[in-house]
């Protein structure tokens, strides 16, 4: 391979550093990856083989070590910490189950509690937290919009109401899956 930066090992390494440093601001994270990219380019000759590339990456340290060092240099930034899996499961369950409980009038309460739990968690970045909040509160817009569409299309019976709530559950479910994957990568046994 003529360009070491295009090598799959280097691309995977830089992507891993970027992911591990997710708590940093976008600018700081881009600078960190750019600095690493520049360093890797300077130490690896053109056409370096897999062994030479792996050795150079090993000398830099693991992506987690590099990200931890960069995070430690930033005032007010804490690394992501895994939380109790039961707590995470409860929060994600509340995200999804808030939608069907809108019928009983407690859906909004569940959604707000889930959003607060998301923001208090140490397992997610600000970006994840914003996404989770948008997803958990999306039924506020989706339920009336889908209900109005069904009513406009020919009436709002029980089947249409069920359809409305099923449609409204898609966004919180997708958000819960995304947050669950983000939290799982903090656990050492997670792949």
What would your notes on this structure say?
With 191 residues, the chain is mostly helical. Helices cover 71% and strands 0% of the residues. The protein has nine helices and no strands. The chain has helices at 8-20, 26-43, 50-60, 63-73, 85-97, 107-120, 126-137, 139-154, 158-184. Helix 6 (107-120) runs antiparallel to helix 7 (126-137). The longest helix is centred in the C-terminal third of the chain and has 27 residues, at 158-184. It is elongated. The mean pLDDT is 84.
DSSP summary, beta strand count = 0
Q: How does the helix and strand content classify structurally?
A: mainly alpha
- Helical content (DSSP H or I, runs of 4+): over 70%
Give the integer mean of the pLDDT values. Answer: 84
**Total of DSSP H or I helical runs spanning 4+ residues:** 9
Main beta sheet strand tally, sense and closure: none
In whole angstroms, the N-to-C terminal distance is: 29 Å
Percent strand: under 5%
Order of helices and strands: HHHHHHHHH
Cα shape: elongated
Radius of gyration: 22 Å
């Amino acid at each position: 391979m003529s360009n070491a930066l295009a090598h799959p090992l280097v691309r995977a390494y830089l992507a891993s550093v970027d992911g591990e440093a997710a708590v940093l601001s976008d600018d700081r994270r881009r600078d960190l990856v750019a600095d690493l990219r520049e360093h890797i380019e300077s130490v690896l000759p053109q056409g370096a083989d897999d062994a030479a590339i792996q050795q150079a990456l090993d000398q830099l340290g693991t992506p987690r070590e590099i990200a931890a060092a960069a995070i430690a240099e930033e005032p007010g930034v804490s690394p992501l910490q895994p939380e109790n899996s039961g707590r995470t499961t409860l929060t994600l369950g509340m995200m999804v189950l808030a939608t069907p409980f809108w019928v009983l009038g407690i859906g909004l309460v569940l959604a707000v509690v889930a959003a607060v739990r998301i923001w208090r968690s140490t397992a997610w970045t600000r970006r994840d937290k914003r996404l989770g909040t948008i997803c958990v509160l999306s039924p506020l817009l989706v339920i009336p919009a889908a209900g109005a569409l069904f009513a406009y299309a020919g009436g709002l019976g029980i089947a249409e109401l069920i359809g409305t709530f099923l449609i409204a559950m898609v966004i919180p479910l997708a958000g819960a899956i995304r947050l669950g994957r983000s939290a799982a990568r903090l656990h050492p046994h997670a792949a």
